[in-house]
Amino acid sequence: MTEVNLGEEIVFWFSGGLAVLGALGLILSRKAVHSALWVALTMINLAVLYVANSAPFLGMVQVVVYTGAVMMLFLFVLMVVGVDSSDSLIETLKGQRLVAIVLAVGLAILLVAGIGAGLTDVVPVGLDEANGVDGGNVQGIARLLFTDYLVAFEVTSALLITAALGAMVLAHRERWLPRASQEELSKARFTGTGHPGNLPSSGTYARHNAVDTPALLPDGSPSAQSIPGPLVARGDVRPVDHHDVEQIESLDGGSK
Amino acid sequence: MTGSQFGVFGIDPWWLVLLKALAIFVMLVLLTLFTIWWERRVVSRMQNRIGPNRVGPFGLLQSLMDGFKLALKEEIIPKAAHVGVYWIAPVISATAAFLAFAVIPFGPTVSIFGVETPLQLTDFPVSVLYVLAIASIGIYGIVLAGWSSGSTYPLLGGLRSSAQMISYEIAMGMSFVAVFLYAGSMSTSEIITAQEPIWFAVILLPSFLIYVTSMVGETNRAPFDLPEAEGELVGGFHTEYSSLKFAMFFLAEYINMVTVSALATTLFLGGWLAPWPISLWESANTGWWPLLWWLIKVQIFIFVFIWLRATLPRLRYDQFMKFGWKVLIPASIVWIMIVAAARVLRNDIELSNRQLLIAGAIVIAVLLVGSWFAQGALDRREAARKFIRDEIESRPFEPMAGGFPVPPMPGQQAVLTTRRSTIPVVQQEAIDG
C-alpha cells in the first residue's frame, strides 16, 4: 500500500462522511425536494474526493454536470410531484422496509468484503505516474477519449442526442396555423372587438383598494371594465358611496 | 497536483496563504461597496441627476452606511418558509461568490515579506472549469431562496433564474473552448502567459462577444434581469428576504459582477498584462504595477455593466431564451468548429497565410451566394404562410365537415347554438307561435 499523508486522510474522512450523510439523507427525508438537496451534497463531496485523488478534471466536471442534473431533478419534483408534497408513512407492502434494510446491509457487506479482498494484493502504480504519461491529468484523459475510447465516446454522445430529440418529439405540439407575428397580433388587438390596452384597474377610488371596488370615470360613474367578470356575475361589486364622491369634490374646492 | 508547470503554486507558507485569502476577501467587499456607489453615480449622471453625494467625499461612504442600515433592520421571515433551506440559501449564494476568486490572477510573481510568490491564491490545471463549477453551485442559492420562501413570486423568480443561468452557462462554457484551444491550457495563469504577444479578445473576437453577452445573463443583470423583474415578479427570488439575508444576496450579485469581469479580463484581455502603449515600457509587467492594469480592465467591464443597465430595457422572457438557445449556442458551436479547423490546418497541413486568406475568401463568397438563395426561400415561405392563413380564415365554418361534428379551425367563428331551456318563456312562446 502507498502511504497516506495526514491531509489526505482528513479530506477522505470529512468528505467521505458528508457524502454518506447526503446519501442517507436522500433516503430518509420525507420531502422530495430535500432528497434532491441531499443528492447535491453527496455529489459535491464526491467531487472533492476526486480532486484529492489527483483527478481535478473529473472533479470539476462532476460538479458542473451533477449540479445541473440535480437542478433538473429539483424542477421535475416541483413540476410533477408538487411544491409541498411529502411521502406518506403507510407501508403498502407489509414488512418491505425491514426486508429492504436487511438486503441493503447484506449487499454492503458483500461489496466491502469482495472489493477489499480483491484489492489487498494490488500494488498501486501511483497517481503521479498515471497522470505523468501524457504530461498531465487533462492531457491524459484527452488522449484516451480521442484514441482508445473514441467509439464509446461518440456512441454515448449519439445516445444523449437521441434522448434530447426524443424529449423534443414528446413535447412537440402540432401547429394548426403559422405562428402569428408581433405585427399581426398588434393589428388584431386594435381592430378586434376587445380592449386594445390594459383594462382600467380596480380600487383606484380613494377609500378602498379591493378588487371589488370599481374605478370611477371622470363623471363619477363606476367603470364596469375595472371589475373582474366573475365578480360582476356573482353580484359582488361594491356600490359607489356617493357621499365619498361629494366629500372629495368639496376637498377639491368643488371643481369638477 | 504538483505538475512541474505549477511549481510556483502550493508552496507558499501557511501565513501567506491566509494573508492572500484575507486580502481577496477584503478587496471583494471593498469593490462591492465601491461598485454600488459607482453604479449609482454613473446611472445618475446618465439620467441627468447627481446621485449620492452626502456621506463622505463624493458620497463614497453612502453604500457603507446603507449596508449598516440594512444589517440592522428588522428581519421578517414568512410563516410558510421552509426555515432550514431559507437560512442556507443566502449563505450558499455569498460563499460561492467569494470562492470563485481563488483562481483569479492579479499579477506576476512579487515579493511579500521576503517571500517570492505569485499574486494569485492558487492555480491548478482546470481553474477555469473550477470557476464554472462554483458558478453552478451559486445558482442553488437563488433557486433555493425562491423555493423556500413559500410564496409564488419568489418561486417563479427562482425557476426563471435557474433556467436562465443553465442556458447561458452553456454558451459561456463554449466561448471558453476556443481560448483553451489557443492557450493549450485551462489554468488561468497559463492562459495569461499565452496572451503575451496578442490578447485573445482580438484573435478570438466572436468568443469574446459571446462571453460578454452570456456573462450579463449569468449575473442576472439588466437587460437580462428577468429573475428579479420588478414589474412582473415584485423582487423575484429575494422578495421575502430582508435585513442581513437580503444584504448577502446583494453582496453576492455585485461580487459575481466582479468575478465574471475578472474572468473576462483573464481569458480575453490579457489579465494583468499591460495594454499596448504602456507595454512598451520595460518594467510594465513586473512588480506591483500589473495589479493596476488588472483593476482598470475589470473596472471597464463593470462600467459596461452599468452602461447597459442605464441604456437597455428588459427583454421579454421568451425572446431572451430564444436568443440564448437559437443564436448564442449555435453561433458558438460554428465558431468552435472554425477555430478547431484553423488549428488543424495550421498544425498538420502546411498552409501559408496567402492560401488561408484565399480559402477564407472562397468560404465568404459561398456564404454570400447561399444567403441570397436562402432569402428567396424565406420570401416564398412567407407568401405561402400568408396564403394558408387567408385560405383558412376565408372558408366558412362547417360544423359537420366530412360527416362528423368538428370544432372550428383557429380564425373561424363557431355558430352559436341556443338551447331551448336558456331562452325566456316569453320568447319561446313567440318562436313557437
TrEMBL record, chain A:
Transmembrane segments: 12-28, 35-52, 64-86, 98-119, 149-171
Gene3D superfamilies according to UniProt: NADH-ubiquinone/plastoquinone oxidoreductase chain 6, subunit NuoJ
Region (Disordered): 212-236
Keywords: Membrane, Transmembrane, Transmembrane helix
InterPro entries per record: NADH_UbQ/plastoQ_OxRdtase_su6, Nuo/plastoQ_OxRdtase_6_NuoJ
UniProt keyword Transmembrane present: yes
Pfam families noted in UniProt: Oxidored_q3
Keyword hit for Protein transport: no
An annotated Gene Ontology molecular function: NADH dehydrogenase (ubiquinone) activity
Name recorded for this polypeptide: Unannotated protein
Organism, as annotated: freshwater metagenome
TrEMBL record, chain B:
Transmembrane regions listed in the UniProt entry: 14-38, 83-104, 124-145, 166-185, 197-216, 246-271, 291-311, 323-345, 357-378
Primary location recorded for the protein, binned into one broad class: membrane
Subcellular location: Membrane
Organism: freshwater metagenome
Protein name: Unannotated protein
Keywords: Membrane, Transmembrane, Transmembrane helix
NCBIfam families: PRK06076.1-2, PRK06076.1-4
GO process annotations (BP): aerobic respiration
GO molecular function: NADH dehydrogenase activity
InterPro entries (UniProt xref): NADH_UbQ_OxRdtase_su1/FPO (IPR001694), NADH_UbQ_OxRdtase_su1_CS (IPR018086)
Membrane topology, record value: Multi-pass membrane protein
GO CC list: membrane
